[in-house]
Amino acid sequence: MTENLTIDDTATRWSSPDRGGMPLLVLLHGYGADEHDLFGLVPYLPSGIAVASVAAPLAPPWPMPGRSWYAIDGLDGRSPEAVTIAAEAFLRWLDAAAGDSPSVALLGFSQGAAVSLQALRLAPARFGAVVALSGYAAPGDLPGDETLTELRPPVFWGRGTHDDVIPPALVDHTAQWLPGHADLSGRVYTGLTHSISEEELADVHRFLTKWIEGIGADQEEGPRPA
Question: Model confidence over 108-129: pLDDT tens digits?
Fold first, then answer.
């Protein structure tokens, strides 16, 4: 396991070259995919935001194509430490890429969802919202968890009844952990496998629209008096 992971910024896909001052939504793909995979969701997302789709820093073992955030085979598969290392690499990328965005949200699928939630735990005040699709929260404790119980940022967790990729123990852990650390919304979609449906995308659109509206409300209120 490599602790000095680096995300290749030249591989990042952006929805628009002109993104100054816009809210930023970052897409984090799943195992064996790449930065092109979730970029196809852009037409289903709210307008008025900049969207970046990043490439995970690792290559899965041959012959698996695409990229990965952490290993899922062997004794260290899905280890919380590996998820944390990936999230730290992502946060370093974000520090350089976010620019003057007034708010940052994450949308992760599978591995990308796990890394999104781990990034939220490492930097609780950094994100306005997180969408976790077909993913999980890594077990174990992190220093930011206590802050999350106070901030309770909005998190949407979507998964399918026929998703047999994420181990049931991790799903159960996430179902117990998230309500105490986030303003949780979401849905379990009947018949959905390890994938994303149009019905789920409609729910994600509504969730992200609330995030955007909340940014506007905060800006109208202005700074609070000391």
Answer: 999 999 999 999 999 999 999 9
